[in-house]
Amino acid sequence: MPAGWATDGEAYRMTQTYQSRRIVIIGPGATGGAIAAELHDVGVEVLLVARGDEYEAINRHGLRYHTTDGVRELRIPVVDGPAGAELRPTDILLIATKAQDVEPALRAWAWQPVSHPDGSTTPAARTLPLLTIQNGLNTERVALRWFATVYAAAIGCPAGKEGPGEVLNFGAAARVLCWLGRYHGGSDAQRREIATLLRQAAPIRVQEVQDVVAWKAWKLGYNTVNALEPVFTASALRDELRQRLRREALDVFAAMGIRPVDPYHDSSSELDFALIAPQPVPGRTRAGNSTLQSFLRGATLESDYLNGEVVLLGRLHGVPTPLNAALQELVQQAAAESRAPGALGDDAIRELLDGAPVGQESA
């Protein structure tokens, strides 16, 4: 049995103990919605927290979940904010918003009362475990400003948004990969309990890890290239830029004393990305990575917390990151000007690689 996994007896005990636990998913977008759907399907109690059109759609017709098996409408309970949640001491909070939306969400939830059987209340920040699934390395540090117990996950999930209340998931053998750990390091019983809860859904594959920052650092380096699709047309030169963006991130991590764990090549990884290789979903097309999906929808971009995170950490540790800084600026410029994806070509990439300013559209 792989290290860190519960024995059959332990799994049974934890399942019995935590059948009454509820997972409160704040921000049921692509990944949060996929986790919610998979857990709801196997009987885990889930509460969704959504806003605006997202809340209205889920409240009206449920969460529409498109997978390789077809589409299902899942009647998952939903509220439109913290006040409607009526928090319990056995709840687990899962923050699934984009990284740029985390801080106001955490602030709103931190001091919400948790009601105990004896009639007393305590604040969520002191009482409940918080699980973060954002890309980048910023969310967990921010969360500790309020929440005493923080768990983090590096996530692989081939999901996307179709519209309010609709999630697409192109995974087949599995639909979510999760490397789960306590922030900042170590292990405890509650980490295993959260992992056991997630494992109730077979399409969610979980590996418990000691140093979750090392796994999240790899994912951040991997995600530095997300903004390439909205900005540059595909080419061999774009592939070279992709490698150099990641190299900058690795240089920053080395200066920080972080050794990223690459699940593609590190023998310590028990999960294989091939499990979530995208497969056809009937009647749907995969739009691309999460940044491109947001770009196409006109939503705010995560790039300030991907490329911008590398830039910030580079400045703090004295490591130049000119390519990530340039791409951070270029993708925001492309969004502000409502450009078509891939409007810049190889001439612009050459200018960028040579250190010249870039901004003109290709012919």
From TrEMBL:
Keyword presence, NADP: yes
Domain Ketopantoate reductase C-terminal: 218-333
Gene3D superfamilies, sorted: N-(1-d-carboxylethyl)-l-norvaline Dehydrogenase, domain 2, NAD(P)-binding Rossmann-like Domain
GO cellular component: cytoplasm
Top-level lineage group: Bacteria
MF (Gene Ontology): 2-dehydropantoate 2-reductase activity; NADP binding
Residue span(s) of domain Ketopantoate reductase N-terminal: 23-171
InterPro entries, A to Z: 6-PGluconate_DH-like_C_sf, 6PGD_dom2, Ketopantoate_reductase, KPA_reductase, KPR_N, NAD(P)-bd_dom_sf
Keyword NADP: yes
UniProt keywords, alphabetically: NADP, Oxidoreductase
PANTHER family (alphabetical): 2-DEHYDROPANTOATE 2-REDUCTASE, 2-DEHYDROPANTOATE 2-REDUCTASE-RELATED
Similarity comment: family membership: Belongs to the ketopantoate reductase family.
Name the UniProt record assigns to this protein: Ketopantoate reductase family protein
